[in-house]
Each structure stands twice: as structure tokens, then as C-alpha cells.
Amino acid sequence: MNLPRFNTAVDEIIDAVEQILHQKPLGSIQRFILTQSWLGKTYGEMAKGSGYGSDYIKEVGSQLWQELSEALGERVTKKNLHLVLKKHQINRTPRVQSQQEYPQESENGFSKTRTFLDLLTVTKLDFPSGPIPLSSPLYIHRPPLEELVYAEIGQPGCLIRIKAPRKMGKSSLLNRIIAHCGTKGHNTVYLDFQEADEAIFGSLDKFLRWFCVNISRQLNIASNLDDYWDEDMGSKVSCKIYFEAYLLEQINSPLVLAMNEVNRVFEHPDIAHDFLPMLRFWYEQTKQHLAWEKLRLVVVHTTEIYIPLKLNQSPFNVGLTISLPPFTLEQVRELAQRYGVDWLASESGMQLLAPIHTMVGGHPYLVSLALYHLRQGDMKLEVLLQTASTPSGIYSQHLRELLTLLQAEPQLMSAMQQVVMSDESVELDAIAAYKLESMGLVQLDGNLANPSCELYRQYFSQQLGKQHSASASVKLLEEEQLEHHQDNATDVMSQFANIHFLNHYLETEWQRWLTQASLLSLMICEIDYFKLYSDLHGYRLGSASLEQIASTIKECLHSQSVLMAHSEGTKFIAVLLHIPSENVIEIAENIRERVEKLGIAYTQSQFDGFPSSVLTVSVGIASVTPDLHNSSAMLIAAVEEALFQSRRKGRNCVTMNSGLIEDV
User: Fold this and answer.
1) DSSP secondary-structure letter at 614?
2) Which residues, in sequence order, are CB contacts of 206 under 8 Å at separation 6+?
């Protein structure tokens, strides 16, 4: 990976500082320190990148800040460099002003003047999104993380894992590790698994070949995979031989393999359970074989998704693990300086900065988003804080994404509800506590949890509180009904899942079924004219009849269905796997016949002209082999259409939606 050139604005900063020092030219080491300080580097990082000792770097830097302090009449330090120089520019003398104007091309092609003031923060204020560029002053160091990873990446055969929730700065740190390795002459390969097509995850062989081809291309080495790939040995062994006997043999310097968004692999358990132990094995090889010492691994992943592995197979319990922490209040202040929000970065502004830090808990992206809007001037601080947790606030999209993740796991949603609705720390189940912390939603002290920031407390107490009220209302209604229903109907009905669980099950399992290429069928049975029957015969008899039919359906599907659900009072839905379509139709016909034979009769005088004298069911079926061209929503729509066709045919019949039938 090529290193980016320094922004020319930084070179102009050096010229401006020389003018402040009354045209005294800076030496090469002073220029280096000023440039690196401007970009937020520590003295330790400067020393590693230059070959000078850190004590010497610090001594020269201190002398430079002393000279600037004397010239400007106020104390200058490495930390307040941006703020002091900007203040100087605002109060500059006409002599300095005339010498600090820089021509710049405008959008319409005409020349305009760019002053030194424009160079003190960001020259172009982009909406916070994605990794922070290497040349941007907006990257905030979080000591001692950078020092740790730079020291570790210099060790033969190392493995570094960087983990954090989304938007905490993982990719920005990774890019700086790669740039650092470039200055050391290392071979660097960057793989982002988000770039892989979904089809790549279709098999381990296809995935590992994609993996090897991309590494070869970035190393400018011909990808002679066929010379090393052997089906009899298997994909993992072939991949190892390709690395050991081919790639590592052709390079003389260390190979840094940086893998970003590895969590994408977690979404494909069949791939993850082979690929991740393979990385662990490679790491162990670096400790045993000289050829493998050249390999240095950097694994980056979000913590919202995790794939369980045996301890002796996981690459996640070896090497150096880096967990990115939130910004401290001082780091937020430094970022405010670099954004140019000086009224927050000043000593008096710290009182205003503290509520922002409390609201978002120092979350880098959320802090940056607040400073962006404050710098733009499109929102006052008071309004930003008041609307932060509302749908009109600047964090609405981020909060909706988190809510969606919670809704996918009801147990986590319940645990989060306990946390935000309590004024004290809440003791959680260990697994729920771990998952919520991994999502960045809570802070843990043992198993005692608190919201990680005020924003999450406010938002989730509002959202989950509404759902709690709705659940309480439903529960109250159910209790009222149970007062009139003393039989054992609930014993049977409780064995059916609800429709929300069914939808969640189909969505989450769909990714796994994609890799199995097996037939999936959905069957829906609806009791014909049941509302009319219940209205006529009363709630007690209606409930008893519902229980009887439910028991019959359950008995017919017991050994065939992987999930049964109950919906809308009269509908029963079943998920069937690996069963040929003609067999599914036979099961459906058996259900229809068994229900009819129950002989649950209408009062004939009230039902003259109906096609049946007893309760019956109509059945719809849809079958599909999950692939990239269909979805669980399409399957549900297809089975509903099949049920509709059964109604049109006069009910008490079975219809297969042939549009989704796949050959087995």
C-alpha cells in the first residue's frame, strides 16, 4: 500500500511558524516534529518513525514550543498548538496577514484567497463517515494503543486483534498500522471482507482461493494456485502450502496481512469454523518454523457478532488484543480544537463540553457528529442535547440501527430494558451482559450493568418503555380472557411459537440455509369460517375446538416440522426442511383429512348452504431452495398466495404455489 503524501497545507503551516519566529528557518528535525505534532503523533511514535531517540525528540520539541511561546507571548505546548496558532491568526498584525495568504482554485475556476486560518483545522469539512484519512488532523491518538500496536507489529510472527463496536475507529487505526509498516519496508496486504461477493462464501474452497488470489495480486506475484491446489489434500492444506512454499518464499521482508471486517466471515458459520482455526494454526506456525516468521497478522472485527470456537482453535485468545476505548474529556476537547470549535475547546468551554461527553460517552463517531454540526453552525448546543435521543435528533439513524439489532434478539432487548429502566446498576445474565457490552450499549462492573451513555439511556427507555407498555396491555387482555377460559387449551397453544418469532427465525436461519442448498417448505393451515363458529357457539366451545384442531395439526407435523407457529387465532404455520414437495403435499392432505374427521359440527340451522357441516382447514404450501435471488419475505408472500387460492377453490383443500417449487 502506498503511503499518502503530506497535505501541502502542513508545509504552509511550517512557513507560517517560521514567520512567527521572525523568519528564523526551522531545522529538519524541528520541521519533522512540528509536522508530526500537527498530525497528532506522540514523541514515541516520532522516534520510531525517524530513528532519533525519544528523549532527543522531546528535548527539541520542548525548545520549539518555548521559542513559539516567547514569540507569541503565551504558553505553547504540543497539545494546544492548533488552538494557539489559530488565535494568533485571528489577532495577527497586518504584516503577518499579508504574508499568510495562499492562492487556491475555487469551484467556479476563479482564484480566491485561502488564509492561514483555513489551514489550522480541516481544510474541507466532510460529514463524519468512514476511516479518517492519514493526512487528516482529526485523528485523535488514544495512548498507549498506538505505541502498543507499533511495537507489536515489529515482532516476527505476531498477531494483533483490534475489536470494538461499529464506528469506534478500528479502520482508522488499521490504516495507520499499514502506513507505519510501509515506512519500515514491510510488504503490506489489506483485505476487507466486505468487498467479497456473497457467492465467495458459497464454499470454503472458493473462499480460500479468493483469499489467496487477492493476496498474490497485492504482492504483485502471479497467482499460480493450480500448481499448489490439490483436492485430495483439501482447501486448508492447499492454502497453507501455497503460502509456505510459494508466497513467503518470494518475499524477503515481513508480510503484514491486515484483515478488516472479519465479522463478515462470522455470518457464514461453515466458513468461519474452518477459516478462523486456520489463522490460529498459522500463528502457531510462526513460532515453530522460520519461513512463517515473515507473516504478521492483524485481525479487525466489530463485536456485535461473534462466532463461538473452542479455545484451542480460536485466533481470538492469542496475540495482542486491542479494545478501542471511548474518548476521554481531554481527547474530546482536543478534537474540538481540530474541528475549529474554539468556544468549546477553551478553558471556559470545558463546562459546555462536559454535557456532550456525558451524552455520548466519548463515542468517537458520536462526538465527531456533534462537533461537525456545531462547526457548521446549523444547530445550537442546547438544541443538539435536547433532541439527541429523539427521531429529529442527529443520532436518529445510529439509534435505529442499534434498536434493530436488539429487536432481533428478544432476550437482549429484555436485558437492555432492565438496564435503562433502573436507577441503579442491574445484575444481568453473564451472556446477555457480554453481548450488550460488545454492542457498546452498557458498561460492566462484573455482571452489574449501566448504560454506556446518557443517549442510550434516554432513547432505549423511551422505545423499550413503549414496547413494555404494549406487552403489559396484551398480557392484561390475555389474563381477562383466561378468567373465562378454565380448560387446558393453553397447554397445547403454548407449544406453538408466535408469528414474530417465526419471522425472526426465517430471517436469521436464511443465511445458513443459503449454504446448504436444501429444499425449504412453508405450510399454512387456516380453520375455515372459525369466527362464525365461535360467535355462534361461544368462547368456551370455540376455544375447546381450537385446542382440538391445534392438537391434531401438531400431531401430524410433530416429526416433520422444525418449527410450528400460531397466528391470528385461526392460522397455524409450519417450517419443513429437506422434504420433497410431493411429500409436503401428502402431509398437508393428511392434516386436512384428520381435521375433517374430528367432526366438529356446526348448528345446521344457522349454516345452511355452507360446503361442509363440520370445521375444516384450508392449506397453502410454498417451497424454495434458498439462494441469492429469493428471501424469507418472498416465501411468506408465496405461501399466503397459496392459501388465498385454497379459499377461492371453496376451502377445505390444499394448494401448492408452483411458482416457487425448486427441483430437489
Assistant:
1) B
2) 199, 200
